[in-house]
Amino acid sequence: MAVEIGIKAILAFIMLMGALNLAGLLTWVERKQSAVMQDRIGANRASIFGIRLLGLFHPLADVLKMLTKEDFVPRGSDRLLYTLAPILSVFFAIPAFAAIPFGDAIQIGERVIELQVANLPIGLLYIFAMMSMGVYGVVLAGISSNNNYSFLGGLRASSQMISYEVTLGVAAMGIVMVYESMNLQEIVRAQGTYLWNVIPKWGVLVQPLGALLFFVAAMAETKRIPFDLPEGESEIIGYFVEYSGMKFGMFFLTDFLETVLLSCMMATLFFGGWQVPYLYPEGFHFPWGSLWSMPHLWVILLGIASFTLKVVFFCWLLMTIRWTLPRFRYDQLMRLGWKIILPLSLINIVVTAIFCLR
Amino acid sequence: MSTKVMHHRPLNFWERIYVPEVARGLWVTSRHFARNLFIHTAHRLGLLKHLQAAVTIQYPEEVRPYAERLRTRHRLTQREDGSPRCVACMMCETVCPAKCIYIVAEEDPDPNIEKRPKSFDIDLGVCVYCGYCVEVCPEDAIRMDTKIMNIASYSREGMWYNMDRLLHPEKEGDVLLKPKT
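^ Those are the sequences you sent over. The predicted structure of the assembly is below.
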């Protein structure tokens, strides 16, 4: 029993450290990538003993700044909810990572360990539940700040996130129908089969429309440009306008954690998770018949590397989108959500059902 | 009526479904990303120095080239013996729109020169850098060609430049930054 708990603790530690560090690193990536995209250099002044290291110390400097800043509570605000809002925001972003499988089952002696913190049969529903709870932090921040602008931001956030949650769930249902499971590890395993023995049966190939719709809807859930209506930093600053110090930092961290979570979901549901094409537990089986056998540990490590690479790629793609597109207008956002994406995802479900049930 | 009516072309089908246009935008930005990342990496390795990856001028270390006619911090020109060329005619003090020049005149011991400044102060905290004082000076005694741009002080008194500071801009704490070549 103690060993079981110890293994789970180690897995949780790995996943938590991975997610949080990637989220922290994304603040650096956001600065540097936007700079490189726009022919600039980007933040590079933070230094320790004159060592600048491409500005990698800026996240550290940010954290130091946020921890030492004044923790301001506006007059007339609801002190309890005001303090609770950022905590809720982060709290519901982190446990969603528990259901993400980051590697194949590893065999040590007699023991088989799934490289996943919680091997839930309803992993997909669990992640959706956590993502929809995330809206509470935003709405409470909007209500409790006693500020019209943050109230507007909270209002926009609730309508936007609830609108796009519908599409998010419906778009992912196609995947559930194709792979006949809600368990994310099972979904990833099922993506290891091949169409006509050649093409990996990844979600993006059997559900291209579903992948696109899921990506757009999940991007709206992360509340970043081009769906940053709740924040809208050029007009209302958004739900966290009154927050300062580490409370603001927690909202900031939530944004990046959700970006990482979205990348993990895209990789897991639509891009084969930890699957490497033609890699089986005993080594590479190429479709032309040749075999390249590999030790068990190597196969596992290759799987983890493949998953990490996919997640990093999607983080990059999200950053590129964030620094390329302008924000949607509010009516455009609602029209896109209710009149375009939702019907398309319903059509996607119907077509998938016809193919699955025939 | 001066209103100009703009006739925008209605978006066609491919533009209205967003996705191709979004992909086109992403193509532009990621092309910049890939090119600049490649050149930045090459610069780290000491290669391709002739290609420019970023247009950034890293200010305290590098300074953008200044134009010749740029109006910068004032200085008082000197005669060959080191005394100021100024004859305290009060032209600059009179023309100054910000009223930031304060001259006190006294009699010059040289019989060929009528007056000289006893004190010549400019309050740079008030100066608007219009250059009228330079234009109006009959003796070419005041110029704005020091190329000193970073004038700053922790107090209002520190912005007060007396005759000694104006005569010897090179002695000042203000650093003359070398323009990027």
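Chain A is about 60% helix and 5% strand. The mean pLDDT of chain A is 89.

Shout if you want it in another format.
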